[in-house]
Amino acid sequence: MKNKTPRKILLALLGVFWAVSAFSQTKTITGKVTDEKGMAVPGASILEKKSQTGTAADADGNFQITVPGNTTSVEVSAIGFITQNVAISGTEPLTIVLKEEQKSDLNEVVVIGYGTARKKDVTGAVANVSSKEFNQGPITNPMQQIAGKVSGVVITQPSGDPNQNISIRLRGQTSLAGNQAPLIVVDGVQLPDPNQISSISPADIVTYDILKDASATAIYGARGANGVILISTKKGAAGKAVIDYTGTIGFDKNAKKYDLLNAKEFTDAGGTTDNFAGGSTLRNGNTDWVDAITRTAPTTSHNVGISGGTGGFTYHGSLSYLKNEGIVINSGKEMYGLNFNAQQKALNNKLVINLGINANRAIRKWTDFNIFYYVLQMAPIAPVYDSTGAYYAFRNDYDIYNPVPLQEMRLNQSRDQTNLWNGSIDYEIIDGLKLGAAGSMSFFNRQTDAYTPVLPGYGNINSGSKYSENNDSKRGELHAFYVKSFGKHNINATGVYEYNYFTYDNSNAAGENYLYDPNQNNNLGGGNPAKNTIASYKNAYRLISFMGRIMYNYDARYYLTASLRRDGSSKFGINHQWGYFPSVSAAWRLSQEEFIKYIGWINELKLSAGWGRTGNSDALTPYQTLLLLGGSGTFYNPATPSFNYRTAYSPSQNANPDLRWETRQGANFQLDFALFRNRFSGNINVFSDKTKDLLYNYTVPTPPFFVNNIWANVGDLTNKGLEIQLNGDIIRGEQVNWSLGGQISFVKTKVQSLAGTYNGYDLNTDHIPAGYAVGRGLSNSPITYLQVGYSPYVFYLPHYVGLDDKGKELFDDGKGGTVGKDALNNDMKRYIDPAPKFTYGINNSISYKKLSLNFFLRGVSGLKNFNNTRMLIDNIGNLKNGNTTKTGLESGDKDDKVASDKWLQNASFLRMDNATLSYTIGKVSDHFDNLRVFVTGNNLFVITKYKGLDPEIQVTGTNNSYIDMFNADNAYYKARSFSLGVNISIK
């Protein structure tokens, strides 16, 4: 043993010597770093991790690095590429090919109507928004998920009312009298009314595909003039069943209120209640009337889905629940939803059967908008309750009542039932050729109950009503799809026959003077028989269509798409029932050309151009081409003594068999790009559209016409614009990522013509009144017009210059002087365009490890709103009839107002629409996965100079366009929302 010890020591010393020798030796590695196209990756990092020795590739991708002699691998990384460990077997030069970390979104599949296509193969203007990009937080209408996300699409919710319809406009105004919202298609079901989307559960939606230009929407022909929004709900995937749950709880608060005087300020300013019924007895209150009708409202939503499949069968089903109590007392929305989609493949996957069901029930508590007017005109010294705790009964000389019982005690509720059914069957009879059939049905029913009991101070009259409405559609379709490649030639052809049948009906019964209020409207015949009313209405029409489309591309470089749709509608006279709607578009993928293909910083580059024609008949209801008769009193008939008085009938509508489609045609030019290894991408669109044969109800003489108005095709308008959508990855890393995206849209709409003839009679108005100011002395005072040469709903107002020494308003007389309101005339007015110059949205997504922050900003520039509410309440004279604002008190304005440009205010704004902070825990056990918790805030702040409650109001339409009314759609206060949520999967 002693003899072996020196040997062990010697061997150990030799081992150490060998290790030190090996480590002290070095070797030099050379090579080149390229991408998958063979292009150099300059600046790529090459790192030997043990010694932390590193270098960077030069401009040609070449590198040289000296590493320890025992090095077996190096780490190669570059921004935009997947990091790789590259083995070293010697000192020979290395060729390292890095794979891109993220592909361009041009490879995404989008829905294009009657089929799908890769985004890079689409020649029209099509935008896609997926669920990961949706706006977060409490969503009362699904369209809020994409508000501000898509260039050219303006989605406006004028108030915080959870039951309010959202305004959707795509590339400007398209009609004078018809519906201007896009056609909405949910899983192939074409909704007869776009407002029905509010009954769809937002949690079930996974993608929105928006067809924007005429070349893309022409496949929907007579229904495509306003654009098309294609919505896809959740589908199943083969594999073990997975249960997903998403839930949120939160609350809404009133975001802002006017600076009305409190009780002390009101009294100090000389305010009285002498003009109130009750007089001086109303001096014991100190009431903030906005607070009296509003509350902090809880919100909650839950969605549970299960998906899976096996053996060619896949399915997804979900149950959803949403409750949003409105911030106004006794208002809100509660909704239950069921969504189910299934697919069965058979016969070697040649036979495919799809079935989808979406059923939703919404219970809505509506708001009486009169309360917002009463709140503004109510003295703060008037109490809500009297000494007994009952609602205080009072009224002033402008019929202003206690608003709290009006909203709290009234029954004003509806139950909406929306059912969407769709199914399809396809069979591939030969390679590439599929024949099939599809069908869908949509059923919408609304049952409304209303009852107003005897209210304190409102008189002794009560009233009740029941209203029922059905809006249904049925669609049948036969189709053929042919997809084939011949070498570098690729063809995708579609042929469709489609039959649509639409029905609408409603009925209403109402009465007054009931003996017992607790019965509400459940005994409508129990009141005064003389006050009972009953009414009903029904219409129906058919739309039959033939459509063909062919998409061709050569070598994924050159693309051509052409389509033709022929629509026939029973709405029109026999000679004008059919319309033809063609389109053609082409694209060139420059990034596939040899002269660009090897430019390393260009990943995708595509030029597109398209032209198309679409139609619109939404301005008309069925039978509007016909001469109609209506009841017009009674007449005495001596021949029937038992029934001496019979109903008399007379014409109620002039016939016009020459009515035809409104047609919109336009051209679009688009550039799509992805640069710098897909870190920077986007698209730019330039478009020019013209709508012809606008439908409008014109005044005509009587005689020779039976009544003094008639619907006719006369006007034209144009829409021209520029859209830019950009997305960029500022930071791409293993732990830190930051992406920034945004869009900006410039759209200019102009009325080109409003004059023409019908049967030799001039329809020659270039100046059609549209919107009206409301207030004392302002009834029937139009302030917006449809005027040739201007945007729709241009303002026509005098120029305000100040007050005289008596607190009365003065105006520019157009000759260098001033006049009072009594001397004003139309020659002193001027046209002012209120339309915004551009709209925009900015999205930020920042993540660090498992923590993420997403926030979205949305804005409008150049918008002007007429602040009718301020015009009413900024008045010292209100102190004898109600309340005023601190602004009005300081202004010295003592007179009833004139509608002038003083109240046309800059309404440009930048809104923090929503922000979400989330933490992804991931897998928590063998069965619980994808756990994520998040907190979201909506409408966090608004930067604006506008002096109203909120600058975002109804911006298009009639009667209240750009007019901020105290009793219109935007009167319900905007809410600021906060919510806490969780996502989890169970396997």
UniProtKB/TrEMBL annotation:
<keyword id="KW-0798">TonB box</keyword>
<keyword id="KW-0998">Cell outer membrane</keyword>
<dbReference type="InterPro" id="IPR012910">
    <property type="entry name" value="Plug_dom"/>
</dbReference>
<keyword id="KW-0813">Transport</keyword>
<feature type="domain" description="TonB-dependent receptor plug">
    <location>
        <begin position="119"/>
        <end position="228"/>
    </location>
</feature>
<keyword id="KW-0812">Transmembrane</keyword>
<dbReference type="InterPro" id="IPR008969">
    <property type="entry name" value="CarboxyPept-like_regulatory"/>
</dbReference>
<dbReference type="Pfam" id="PF00593">
    <property type="entry name" value="TonB_dep_Rec_b-barrel"/>
</dbReference>
<feature type="domain" description="TonB-dependent receptor-like beta-barrel">
    <location>
        <begin position="386"/>
        <end position="940"/>
    </location>
</feature>
<keyword id="KW-0732">Signal</keyword>
<dbReference type="InterPro" id="IPR039426">
    <property type="entry name" value="TonB-dep_rcpt-like"/>
</dbReference>
<dbReference type="GO" id="GO:0009279">
    <property type="term" value="C:cell outer membrane"/>
</dbReference>
<dbReference type="InterPro" id="IPR023996">
    <property type="entry name" value="TonB-dep_OMP_SusC/RagA"/>
</dbReference>
<comment type="similarity">
    <text>Belongs to the TonB-dependent receptor family.</text>
</comment>
<dbReference type="Pfam" id="PF13715">
    <property type="entry name" value="CarbopepD_reg_2"/>
</dbReference>
<dbReference type="InterPro" id="IPR037066">
    <property type="entry name" value="Plug_dom_sf"/>
</dbReference>
<dbReference type="InterPro" id="IPR000531">
    <property type="entry name" value="Beta-barrel_TonB"/>
</dbReference>
<dbReference type="InterPro" id="IPR036942">
    <property type="entry name" value="Beta-barrel_TonB_sf"/>
</dbReference>
<keyword id="KW-0472">Membrane</keyword>
<keyword id="KW-1134">Transmembrane beta strand</keyword>
<dbReference type="InterPro" id="IPR023997">
    <property type="entry name" value="TonB-dep_OMP_SusC/RagA_CS"/>
</dbReference>
<protein>
    <recommendedName>
        <fullName>SusC/RagA family TonB-linked outer membrane protein</fullName>
    </recommendedName>
</protein>
<dbReference type="Pfam" id="PF07715">
    <property type="entry name" value="Plug"/>
</dbReference>
<feature type="signal peptide">
    <location>
        <begin position="1"/>
        <end position="24"/>
    </location>
</feature>
